[in-house]
Amino acid sequence: MSAARTPRLRPIAATAALAAGSLLLAACGSSGTTTTSGAAPIPTQSIPAVQADPALAALVPAELKSGGKLVVGSDTSYAPNEFKDEKGRIVGMDVDLGVAIAQKLGLTADFQSAGFTDIIPGIQSNKYQLGMSSFTDTKEREEQVDMVTYFSAGTSAAVKKGNPDKIVLDDLCGKKVAVQDGTTQADEVKDTRNPDCAKAGKPAVPNDGDRFALQTDVAQSLVSGRDQVMLADSPVIDYALKQTGGQLEKLGDTYGAAPYGVILAKGSPLGKAVQGAIQSLMADGTYKAVLDKWGVSAGAISTSEINPAGQG
C-alpha cells in the first residue's frame, strides 16, 4: 500500500516464506494447483495472454514503447495478492493483473520485489513505472502519486485458533497487535485505536502495534504467540487462515472497505492508459478470471477510476 497501506491499510507470502517451525509445509503437485500439506493451494493455471489494444497502446509514452516493458514494484510478502512461490517466482492476483495490463498496452510487465515503504519513493524516482502492491487509495497517497483503482478490500483480524486470549475486535486496548509496517492497519492502531484507548482511560496497544517489514513475519508472530492478534487486508487474512493449517481463525467482521490502486508518478501520462486497460480487462473477462483464480472475486469492482479518494 503515503507509506500507509490503508487496508495495505496493505494488501502472507508463499509456502516457502512461511516454512518455519510449525509452519513447515511440504509441497506437492495436483491438478491445476501447487498444494502444501495442510495449507492453501497455490493456483498454477495460466491466464491467457490478452491482445494489445491499439488505442490504449497509443497512449503509452514513446520512451516506454521503445523499451517495451513496464517495471512494477511490489512487496512480495502479501499472498494471495503478491508473493513468491516455492520456486522464487513472483506470483499473485496483482501480478496476473499487472501482466494483463501491460499486454493491453503492448508491453511486458517486469515485476520487481521491493519493500512496501520503498515503492512510492521508487515511483517518484522513476525506478518503477507502476506500483502494484495492494495499495489502498487514500487522499494522502494521492498527494504523492496517482492511483488507478482496480479492487476493493477491507481490514480483517485474526487470532490463534479458539481465541485463547478472548480478544474482542472493538477493544484492542492493552493487547499485543501485529501489523505490517507502513500499512493503514499500522496507522489505524497509532492514529485511531490508541487515541480512543486513551480517551477511555484504557491501556494503549503496546508500541502502537508490533510492526514488521514483511507480512509473513506478522503471521509468524501471531502463530508463535508473541502477539495476540494481527490486522491485515481481508484477502490476506483469508489466505493466512488456510496457509497456516488451521492454527488461526478470523476475529469479527471485515470493516473499512476501500479500493486498491495501481500507483504511478503524479501526472503520469500512463494514468489514462492504465485505467483504460483495467476497464478493458473487465469487459473481456480477463479481470474476472484473475480474481476467480486467486479466490478473491468478492473484491471485484465494476469501474476503474483515477484518484477518486480526493474527489469526495
Automatic annotation (TrEMBL):
Lineage top rank: taxon: Bacteria
Domain Solute-binding protein family 3/N-terminal: 69-298
Annotated signal sequence range: 1-26
Protein name (Swiss-Prot/TrEMBL): ABC transporter substrate-binding protein
Classification via Gene3D superfamilies: Periplasmic binding protein-like II
Keywords: Signal
Gene source species: Kitasatospora saccharophila
UniProt-listed PANTHER family: ARGININE-BINDING EXTRACELLULAR PROTEIN ARTP, MEMBRANE-BOUND LYTIC MUREIN TRANSGLYCOSYLASE F
